[in-house]
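In the lab's daily routine, each protein ends up as an entry in a very long ledger. A line of letters takes care of the sequence, but it says nothing directly about the fold. The three-dimensional part falls to structure tokens, numbers that each stand for a local backbone shape. The outcome of that step, for a single protein, is printed below.
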Amino acid sequence: MAKQPKQMSISEFQDMIIERINNPENSIYIKVKSKAIERTEYLESIREEGREYGLTDEELDDVVLLVDKTLWGFGILDYLINDDDTISDIRLVNKDTVRVKRRGKRMDANIHFISDDEYKKYIQFITGRNSVNMSISNAAQVFTDKDSSPTNILRFSLVSDLLNTNDSPTLLIRKIPKKKKTFDELMRDNYLTEAQRKYLVDRWRSGKSILVCGPNGSGKTTFINAVLESTNPEKSCVVIQESEELYCNSHPEMIFRKILPAKGNSSFYYDLKALGTLALMESFDTIVVGEIKGKEAASLAYAAYTGSQFMTSVHSINAKEGVEKIIDYALDDQPNRDRKHFSKQFQTLDTVIYVQDYHISQILHMKKYNDKTGEYEFEDVTFKDGSDEPIFKEVS
């Protein structure tokens, strides 16, 4: 007579299954990602095993749901990632603190991990699923997951406990909807007005260049993704980005590229600057750089001065300072140049937008660069209620 397995409580059985999943020797996350494990069959095998340990069908429904969300979802964070489209950022600080940014406002997520060990195992779950190695040389890294969520592209910024003083890793999850928000949806969210939409789309479609400024997580990428759909189809376009956040399915000649960072001891890499230089050699009509963070600003300046249309974003405290910041970045790459050199090149930057708290709070029109004063002359663009006609007011 076959020996019957001992009886288990639901918590004992659940712990056994999760421990098995988290054991790297079993490579279960890798098998799931490579589709070597079939979802329905695996979950049914868990159910059958649970019956052998005396669990009821109702108890097994709970266990199978947990395993399903662990392997094909995001466990304790699954709802925040897959079902709540008002959330753009999720930050794991420690076992007791999970914060979210909802429509530009930061708040507590009311989610807690049982222990430090469970919290660290969840981080390991994310790294295991994405084949990320958290060694000393990779103590801080950014990686993208395009496949695990049916609704969002996920960008992870992970810092290990080697760098954090509380001996705990931290993880920021940025959600980029796979179905981008249209301008109609953004107007319903009070992101912008109909007059602003018409003005900005007309500017972009007619070949004007745009700089999108704002704090971190304010909604800059949201605007770029929306306006990409209005790119002139008769122009060739390249989109260069660090993480795969920007996309467009409507343009016949829009190419998307991402950086290739150096790994380990390799000196082989393509950064934003290298990809920007490559774009100049390929004679694209329109160049989009997801975000300016450094020396790639110099390549963008040369693109601007050769007549290419361009769009990018930068972190800044206001619209005017956004222009100054990309000049600073360009000077970092070429300190032998003076500010006037890059200021003249960026004078083709026709439109500057400032986004704050998921709302376009200011639009500036650049009139010209004044050689005598060494300053740009800007006009503030506003609209009368109920009118699409812009009102231009000189900015001092």
